[in-house]
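Changelog note: in this version the structure field was regenerated for every chain. One regenerated record is shown below for reference.
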Amino acid sequence: MPPIISVSNLSKTYDGGHEALKDVSLDIERGEILALLGPNGAGKTTLISIICGIVSASGGNVTVDGHDIVSDYRHTRSLIGLVPQEITLEPFETVSNTVNFSRGLFGKPRNPVIVEKVLRALTLWDKKDQKIMALSGGMKRRVLIAKALAHEPRILFLDEPTAGVDVELRKEMWQLVDTLRDDGVTIILTTHYIEEAEAIANRVGVINDGKLLLIEDKDAMMRRMGQKQMQIRLQTATDKIPPQLTPYDLERSEDGLTLTYTYDTMAERTGITKLLTDLNAAGLVLRDVQTSQSSLEQIFVDLVKATP
């Protein structure tokens, strides 16, 4: 099945010469959750804005469901829901009217059942008759999401959706994401909360300085690029690492009770067996051994640091 979004050699240079995107190409599969990670100014929002038809590209092309976003704008935009970073709502309008109006913008007939379902999913039903200006910041963020879902899009962009919101809304949002994924909606999110991307995304893309550094299955990326650490708890503290253990580049804890060994999961030999033998030969008695995998955050930081 062809990808629902295909981006080819996309570039964007703003007035003044700033290159926001540099020859970006990627395919987004139907029904997947793709997390786009990158520091501020990396190009994430520009990429989303071009796909949604808000910003014009300087070069390259984008298709959505096989349709060009420029020549068939009306069709491609109808498939997309966008939750922007900034809260831009009419303060004197009610919640329900705001959501109904957004649905109408896409030529959809009024459907109270759909609107009620969306509002209830976002804990907004009891506030449907309130004016936007009376809502808290978190509730306004919920209204933005409701607006994006009002026309039943098949693709949902979430641009930093949980930035500055309360923990309750964040949990509700990811529950909603799970429901949408089950319904076959394709979801693309940018986020600074890397643990959330790690928890819900199928694939992860890393953007920095306008370049797509990589896009890969999340689990495969962590297996390929991640490192594991083995924490070795000792029966008795050691005040220094014995000279014969120097080749292992061990880290000693302040209390001298733990030694940490970092190794590459993809290496032909991890060196663990020989390390344990050498520990015993050095007179160190093990109390416990634990291992931990590098987090997606560590991998992301390493990738961004490595960008030329």
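Spot check on this record: The chain is about 30% helix and 25% strand. The chain has two domains: 5-222, 227-294.
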